[in-house]
Amino acid sequence: MTVGTVRPGGRTARVRAAVLQAAGDALVEDGFDKLDLAEIARRAGVGKTTVYRRWGTVAALVADMLDDMADQSTPRADTGSLIGDLRANAHLVLRTLTDPRQGALFRAIIVAAACDARTATALRTFYAVRIAEWAPCVEQAISRGELPAGTDATEVIRAVSAPLYYRLMISQEPLDPTAADRAAEAAAAAARAGAYAQTG
């Protein structure tokens, strides 16, 4: 049975939840390079064979962890205005990155992606899905006349979260509501000015 077809509340779903929880704990505590499927199985209280058969590699397990995080993410807001939607997006990113567990997980996964190709692919896929979910708020703003025609919705959404991830991973400056609002407002202002309008 593949991920996404498991029966909610069934044994397969419970095993997956336990293994992903254990993998996340191990990733936060020890880092990607020390992840071990046998140790994760022990932490989760499931058989090693089950873990090896279902995931096979640490990278595949991390990819499934990202899938699970995407599934649990809050749906896109629809406030009726561009700035309202972008602020909602920024505050969702803020809540995720400042959550004690989720923030630590994202740090560890981003570090892992720098040295593991499969994890990097899984991380890109995760963000592509999240950006695609939020892109319609920009497209709606174009249709309302708030933004120039041809504005690249993907780039606008990226511009909202990029400053927050910079604070998380590089500058380690405070991540707070003011930073989230500023990121949303800067992205909206740049979009209105045509900075993300596609040409040619």
Q: What is the terminal separation in angstroms?
A: 46 Å
CATH architecture type of the largest domain: Orthogonal Bundle
CATH fold type of the largest domain: Tetracycline Repressor, domain 2
What would the principal axes of the Cα set say about the shape?
elongated
Return Rg in Å: 19 Å
Number of structurally distinct domains? 2
Can you walk me through this structure?
This protein is mostly helical. The chain folds into two domains: 48 residues, Arc Repressor Mutant, subunit A (Orthogonal Bundle), CATH 1.10.10.60; 120 residues, Tetracycline Repressor, domain 2, CATH 1.10.357.10. It contains nine helices and no strands. Helix 1 packs across helix 2.
Topology (SSEs and partners):
Elements: H1 11-30, H2 37-44, H3 48-54, H4 58-72, H5 82-98, H6 100-113, H7 117-143, H8 153-171, H9 177-192
Helix pairs in contact: 1-2, 1-6, 2-3, 4-7, 5-7, 5-8, 5-9, 6-7, 7-8, 8-9
